[in-house]
Structure formats: structure tokens, C-alpha cells
Automatic annotation (TrEMBL):
<keyword id="KW-0328">Glycosyltransferase</keyword>
<dbReference type="GO" id="GO:0080043">
    <property type="term" value="F:quercetin 3-O-glucosyltransferase activity"/>
</dbReference>
<dbReference type="Pfam" id="PF00201">
    <property type="entry name" value="UDPGT"/>
</dbReference>
<keyword id="KW-0808">Transferase</keyword>
<dbReference type="InterPro" id="IPR018247">
    <property type="entry name" value="EF_Hand_1_Ca_BS"/>
</dbReference>
<dbReference type="InterPro" id="IPR035595">
    <property type="entry name" value="UDP_glycos_trans_CS"/>
</dbReference>
<comment type="similarity">
    <text>Belongs to the UDP-glycosyltransferase family.</text>
</comment>
<dbReference type="InterPro" id="IPR002213">
    <property type="entry name" value="UDP_glucos_trans"/>
</dbReference>
<protein>
    <recommendedName>
        <fullName>Glycosyltransferase</fullName>
        <ecNumber>2.4.1.-</ecNumber>
    </recommendedName>
</protein>
<dbReference type="GO" id="GO:0080044">
    <property type="term" value="F:quercetin 7-O-glucosyltransferase activity"/>
</dbReference>
Length: 462
């Protein structure tokens, strides 16, 4: 039988491209062929991509070349455009492949993109979602959208939900994804998630691939009867301790600079604070000033990522103009981008101040680094709850009811995590334990490996 041929469709953002590329690496290692698809402008910006046998790239225009400006169009409009353009490109790609006698065995796509399943069905090709957030989020959305909305409180100061969901403590308004909050401007994304879940339920064998691992979210993975959640994570670029045959693909959308690894090498073990807010969100200047104040008052060295030149080259954040820039540069290092997994696996890093994007959270867990959570929106609020209340590998900073986290509050959290003492040691111990479990899951013969192989065997034989 010919080796399987996968079409992998990644939404054009770093948090989708990273796990999709890691999944591509794993599929290639099994002897499969992969066509990796994203937008032309994202692909053009992907640096660090190595050539690999049996891996081809196919791109489609997101309209940037034709003058569609993401900054002046609403996210909803952008999603509609992506759906339209992606569907059209997939049709062409499938038809061209079929005309050459090269059929796709399966289409794997990063959620949320129900339109991909619609296209796959037209050509009778099996498709499956890669969920790039924790299983917990899938569980919450599923329950919310399937008759349990009343059990999930969404008032920021309301009482906890009366009936806890499987594997989770009673949730308060502070713990739920921001899309469920009353008046959320991203309600249309909830509608898209609803459509995605509906499409999945209609599958012959309803299931989802999830970038998590069994030992981390076992109950949440088993919380839904009519849908199978298959944990194939952690899907991460190679981390320290992995053997070189596991070399994985990278595709950074941003450019780094500065010899931060050399600088980290000059610092004592577990002494450096690493700060990053992912690839999408930008911080308002007053919040950055407060973070700077908090960092300075700890007196600890830090590495802070402040992105420059964001999506589609537009100028995003800059440290320019921070009132205490000179003092900051004496105490720490500010970079526009870095190789995050390399940083987190450096022995001198002792704490990650994070927005709790799922990739960042998972990367911190895999590297055994405790966290200070400063969630901003979406799943990040729930991930912060998991970090503090469920896995107990960090603390959540209090933003005074969703407002700015003040410097003093950041300093308090950093001392809790890095200051020694029982709670600090407890968090570090739990982080070490989860690190071992994550690596156990990812290695050959581990749970992720077994789950992915079982899925592949079934796809190939069906
Ligand atoms: C988005 C949402 O904001 C998040 O809530 C959701 O969980 C996933 O989609 P993003 O904000 O980009 O993601 O955060 P995250 O999921 O953490 O992904 C960022 C990626 O960029 C990580 O893989 C991280 O390693 C990488 N990164 C970030 C770098 O490689 N270098 C950097 O300097 C900063």
C-alpha cells in the first residue's frame, strides 16, 4: 500500500503554524507525505524552515497583496475572507492532485475552520481537526453549546457554577473563556466554534486531535461521550534532551535579534524572569510601564520579548518611550522575538510571566518552568485557572477586575514563585513532575506516540 498523503491546513498565525509544523514532522517520520498549506503572506514570513523530503508547501492569497488590510478590517470580515479564499484554494489543490493520480488520504486542519470539513466532504476525503488549545477549552465550549450553558457562570463577579464540569473545579466568571462573557465583541467566534462542533458530530467517527497529553487532562479528554478527544501532544519544536533524529520544523513569523542565549549563560540557575505575551496580543503602554516597574522592584534579571513589526509587517509594540528604559537595560534584556522553547529550556530561567496562550503554557510545562499568569483574553483566562488551581504550577496576577496588573502585584507574584519558601518549592516540584510526564508522553512509545500511531493506522486502513 502507498504511504499516506496528508493535506495539513494551518490558520496563518504562529500559534497554529507551530503545532501544525510539529505534527507535520511527526507524520513525515512515519513515512507519510505532507502538503502544508497556509496563506502566502504567512509562508513568506516563515523563517527557519528546513527542507524536508516528502514535504511540500502550497499557499493561498489572504488578500494582503490585493490591498486587504487586516488593521482596517474587522476580525469577522477577515475570518470570512479566509474561509472563502481557503476553500477555493483547497478545491483547486485537491483537483490538481487528483488529476495527477495523487489523492489525499486525509485533511488535517487547525481549529476553528469548519469550512475545511465542508470542502473535504465534497471530495469524499476524511478530515480531522487539530485543536490547538487545551482539552479543557473544548470541554467548556461543548458543554456550553450543548445544553449546559446555565451551569457555566459568565458573570465576572458571580458565584461559581453550581455543577462542576468533569475534571474541573467549580468555575467562576474569571475562569471562563472571554468569548462566553456577556457583550464579548467576539461572539461570532463562538458561532464558528458551534459550527465546528456540529460538523465534527456529523462525522462517521467523531473525534478531534488535541495538542495536550493524557497525563495532563485525562478527565477533560474523556468528558464528552459523543466525541473522542485524542491527545497527541505536546507538539513542540525539539527541546533540550531530545535526540537529534527528532529534529523538528520551525517557521517563525517574526525576526529575533540579540545574543540572548549567551546572556542567559552568564546568569545563575533559575534566576531569570522570562516575559512574553505571544504572537497576537499587544500591551497598552500603561500596562508595559507597570510591568517594567514590577520587574525593576524585584531586582532580578529578566528577558522581555517586546515584538516589533507584527502581522503583515505593521509596527506593533516597541519598548521605545518606556520611562525607565535605561534602568531596564541595566537589569535585563529586551528582544523583539526569541526562540521561546530554547529560552524556557535554559537552566538560568526561573519563571515565565505569560499571557497563557496555550502554546506558551505547554512549552513552560514541558520545560518545568513555573509561571506568573497575566491572561488577556480568549482561552488564556481558563489556562491561568488551570495553572494556578488545577496543576498548581504558578500564580495568577490580579488585574483588579480585568484591568491593568500593577507593578506591585507583579512583584508579589514573582516573589511567590521565585522567592523560595514552601509555596515556591511546591510549584517548582509540581512543574518538574509535569515536565517528566510531558516528555514521557512525547517520546517513542509514549501516550502521544501511541495515540497518533493508532489514528494513522485506522486512517490508512479505512
Ligand atoms: C493565540 C491565542 O492568543 C491564545 O490564547 C491561544 O491559546 C492560541 O492562539 P498566541 O497569543 O500567539 O496564540 O500565544 P501562544 O499560543 O502562546 O503561541 C505563541 C507561540 O509563539 C509559541 O509557540 C511561542 O513559543 C512562540 N514565540 C513567542 C516565540 O517563538 N518567540 C517569542 O519571542 C514569542
Amino acid at each position: 500500500m502507498a504511504n499516506p498523503n496528508f493535506l495539513l491546513v494551518a490558520f496563518p498565525s504562529q500559534s497554529h503554524i507551530n503545532p501544525a509544523l510539529q505534527l507535520a514532522s511527526r507524520l513525515l517520520r512515519t513515512g507519510a507525505s505532507v502538503t502544508f498549506t497556509t496563506t502566502t503572506s504567512a509562508h513568506r514570513r516563515m523563517t527557519g524552515l528546513q527542507k524536508s523530503d516528502r514535504l511540500t508547501f502550497a499557499t493561498y492569497s489572504d488578500g494582503v497583496e490585493e490591498g486587504l488590510k487586516p488593521s482596517t478590517n474587522s476580525l469577522e470580515h477577515l475570518m470570512d475572507e479566509t474561509a472563502r479564499r481557503c476553500s477555493e484554494a483547497l478545491r483547486q489543490l485537491i483537483e490538481t492532485s487528483q488529476s495527477k493520480g495523487q489523492n489525499f488520504t486525509c485533511i488535517i486542519y487547525t481549529a476553528v475552520a469548519p469550512w475545511v470539513a465542508d470542502v473535504a466532504r465534497c471530495y469524499d476525503i476524511p478530515s480531522i481537526v487539530l485543536w490547538i488549545q487545551p482539552a479543557t477549552l473544548f470541554e467548556i465550549y461543548y458543554y456550553y453549546l450543548n445544553g449546559y450553558g446555565g451551569n457555566i457562570t459568565n458573570e465576572s463577579n458571580g458565584p461559581p457554577s453550581p455543577t462542576p464540569l468533569p475534571g474541573l473545579p467549580p468555575l467562576t466568571g474569571r475562569d471562563i473563556p472571554s468569548f462566553l462573557s456577556p457583550g464579548s465583541p467576539f461572539g461570532f467566534l463562538l458561532t464558528l466554534i458551534e459550527k465546528q462542533i456540529q460538523v465534527l458530530k456529523e462525522d462517521r467517527r467523531p473525534r478531534v486531535l488535541v495538542n495536550t497529553f493524557d497525563a495532563l487532562e485525562l478527565e477533560q479528554l474523556n468528558a464528552i461521550d459523543e466525541l473522542e478527544l485524542v491527545a497527541i501532544g505536546p507538539l513542540l519544536p525539539s527541546f533540550e534532551g531530545q535526540d537529534s533524529s527528532n529534529a523538528s520544523l520551525r517557521g517563525d513569523l517574526f525576526q529575533g535579534s540579540g545574543d540572548y542565549i549567551k546572556w542567559l549563560g552568564t546568569k545563575p540557575a533559575a534566576s531569570v524572569i522570562y516575559i512574553s505575551f505571544g504572537s497576537i496580543s499587544t500591551l497598552l503602554k500603561p500596562q508595559k510601564e507597570e510591568i517594567a516597574r514590577g520587574l525593576l522592584s524585584t531586582g532580578r534579571p529578566f528577558l522581555w520579548v517586546i515584538r516589533k513589526g507584527g502581522d503583515h509587517g505593521k509596527q506593533e509594540e516597541s519598548e521605545d518611550g518606556l520611562s525607565c528604559e535605561e534602568e531596564l537595560r541595566k537589569q535585563g534584556m529586551i528582544v523583539p522575538w526569541c526562540s521561546q522553547v530554547e529560552v524556557l529550556s535554559h537552566p538560568s530561567v526561573g519563571c515565565f510571566v505569560t499571557h497563557c496562550g496555550w502554546n506558551s503554557t505547554l512549552e513552560s510545562l514541558v520545560c518545568g518552568v513555573p509561571m506568573v499568569a497575566l491572561p488577556l483574553w480568549a482561552d488564556q483566562l481558563t489556562n491561568a485557572m488551570l495553572i494556578e488551581d488545577v496543576w498548581r504550577v504558578g500564580v495568577r496576577a490580579d488585574g483588579n477586575g480585568g484591568g491593568i496588573v500593577e507593578g506591585g502585584e507583579l512583584e508579589r507574584c514573582l516573589e511567590l514563585v521565585m522567592g523560595g519558601g514552601k509555596r515556591s518549592e511546591g510549584m517548582r516540584g509540581k512543574a518538574e513532575k509535569l515536565k517528566d510526564l510531558a516528555r514521557e508522553a512525547a517520546k517513542e512509545g509514549g501516550s502521544a506516540d501511541k495515540n497518533l500511531k493508532a489514528f494513522l493506522e485506522e486512517i490508512v486502513s479505512s
